[in-house]
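User: Watch each token:
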Amino acid sequence: MPDDLIHDPKGGMPRLRAIMRALRDPDTGCPWDIEQDFGTIAPYTIEEAYEVADAIERGQWSELRDELGDLLFQSVFHAQIADDKGLFDFDDVANGIADKMVARHPHVFGDESRDKSAEQQTRDWETVKAAERAAKAQTGVLDGVAVGLPALMRAVKLQKRAARVGFDWPNASHVLDKITEEAHELQEAADTLGPDEVEEEFGDLLFVMANLARHMKVDPEQALRRANAKFTRRFERIEAFLAEDGKTPQDSNLAEMDALWDRAKSEEKA
């Protein structure tokens, strides 16, 4: 019976799907869950994906288990909404990704040799994906790069696509020159133009910074996450130093906090 499954601690995936169906039941479900649609749930899906990445970054494996569950629930939620609308169901989702993985790995599931480098496999993967895009009438070089990606991540993906057809700087030094140029244009916009122009120039600078990361084989999202973590860690040390004197940041000033920042920085390097 469904109730038995819902309360079965070993029910696994069937249990989770039964819970989702119960939450969305129009007569007996949760009003909040019933009201949701793809658009309202999407921000939570993105948030959960980042929480998975955060748990991995911090090496918190029990948290990772929980966060993967939260992310899995997002997939189940979207699939249930689709099922309610008569679009597709969870099995369609699972079978679709299974078919895709089999098609994209002929060296594992087909007749192709596994005796190839990771780089060759990556090129083969891109060839298969290009064929998939062509089948969807996505013939433009940039077609299929999801608009909903985080902007920094999407910038790198757009640049990678353009680079495949030769639209790319030959090396990182040219990108550094472009960064200098864009920084000057940003300063000029800030001095003489309005907020829209400043935002545009700032975006151009960020786009080129993403390009530099790609040329230097750095993941800009990961790099910025690490920078955020470092800033948080050091600012918390500033707060701790001030607390030793019975003070808070509100009681301090920039000169004092800047000196304490250097102290925190020195501690990490000691």
Remarks:
- The CA atoms of residues 172 and 216 lie 7 Å apart.
